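ingest -> fold -> write
write: protein_1
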Amino acid sequence: MTRPPRVTFVVPCYNLGHLLTECVTSILAQSFVDFEVLVLDDCSPDATPEIARSFGDPRVHHVRHATNLGHMRNYNAGIAMARGEYVWLISADDRLRRPYVLERFVALLDRQSDAGYAFCPVMRFRDGTETTVYGDHGDGDRVFTGDAFARALARGNSVPAASGLVRKSFYDSFGMFPLDLPFACDWYMWALFALHGDVGYLAEPMVGWRVHANNMTHSFTSRPTALMRDEILVLVRVRDQARATGHTEVASVYDDAIVSYYAWRIASGVGPDGFGRMTPEQLEASLAEWCHDERERKRILGRAYAAFGDVWYDKGDANGALRWYGSALRLAPADARTLVKYGLLRAGRVGHRVRAVVASRS
């Protein structure tokens, strides 16, 4: 029996055959050569099978499913097949920018036995032109403690999906991509793994993340209600995992993040036009899905209703703002910020001017 490779690249591919060559070629160009490439063909209707078999390298394996599994089941199938000590999941539309990136990642994880995964920033590119960097965590290489990095992820996902090299043992021990979180599954995995190990970071953007019309990200943001549902459940589940594993400080950070997330979605939404803003009805439905503690429910609703008050105030509707601030205070009567806003609004023009001055200085 042949010795298993050190690294397995899992390359999910659906209708991306025209980009597959660039991705796989960037992998085959790596200075670290002890790897296998699993092209996970999710019953793609294009020329993916022919392209996947064209590389002439025994390290590249084409795996075609009999039926379409969907992106997360495809990810999990590839991870389950992986023989490597380390697993790199990279979509067929992305690429490695440097021939030494794998060598550097493996060296880091070999040195840092407590690290569950390593990543670097990615360089976005469109039509051959590189644009902006995503996933920047500072100018220098470093290893974050797991707790510190888990706390950072409470602010949102900042680990590019295309640039993570993960110990296979972490998938085996702590689980694979949750099928009921299709829009935020990678964020959940990065935070979950950080509860069980440190996180390696290399500052150079050594991976390219292609931006194009068929990006999965575009389909996510076009369905804001589903996206919001998944993102709040990530925060809830990581908080619960942190509590269960004794990471009390991390759990507290995520507890605050849950409330802040609702307030942010209510007050701002996905973009400056308010697209994706959470309505009162959506808020109630979201809480009903996971929150079964009445005290916690009142605490969250109090902050959320105050955020609704801010929205109405910014629209110039004083009566609407007073109504929501009043609802917030009935649930959380000791909330000082809401008390002040409510009092200033009741003070009329003078209160409005005071609030405008305070806002301009904050």
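write: protein_2
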Amino acid sequence: MIEKKFELLYEKLNRREFVHPDPLEFLYNYDDIKDREIVGLVSACLAYGRVGQILNSVSSILKYLGPRPSVYLEEHSFETMKMSFNAFTHRFATGEKMAAFLMGIKAVIREFGSLEACFNAGLDKTEHTVLSGLCFFAEQIRKYCPVCPGHLVPIPGRMSACKRFNLYFRWMVRHDAVDPGGWENCPPSKLIIPLDIHMYRLSLHLGLTKRRSADMKTALEITRAFGKISPQDPVRYDFSLTRLGIRDDLNPDFFLKM
């Protein structure tokens, strides 16, 4: 049965030793949730493009943020951050956009007390997913950015899959051998699958969706399919399955032949 295969894959691959190369690894260096939630958001929002470049870009930003990113944001202005990140680029992201993004994060933390509190303020507890919280969270960060942050912050109203935000929520809400967690008020049952091209193609192959675009509707459909297998934790198998598209020593045949 497919459920047994998913569990076997989880048991084999849902381990710290299989995290690298993945921006998730940066979160393990921050015990204080005030710092981890900032590092997690920066890491997730840069998670597009070649994985080697992702790791380099996240690492370069974290060097500036130092051991206490929450303190760094409090002590620096938009202008000083722009100067620090002047040479930074990550595909569509410039140093100015990154500085604007961090200013948005800083303002949200001042307004709500934490990124988690902002997310919770928008989360509709009567809904089955985090979509309302995701939309509110993105809107609040964008609202406070002094200039447009571009692709660093999605616009959920356009119905993109918002893969990077859903990846971030997975990291912060779940707690197991891989996901470090830290956010306490959202149940994992509300999480949405972080839908990238690898997960989309695999989901098509497994019959979890028949939709022809990797958008939010498709992400929700795939999440519902996983929810039938793991109702309390529909993204339980996300890390294990995405290893098949990220690591050179693994491929989808590893799962399909199990």
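write: annotation protein_2
The chain has one domain: 2-256.
The longest strand covers residues 89-90.
pipeline exit 0
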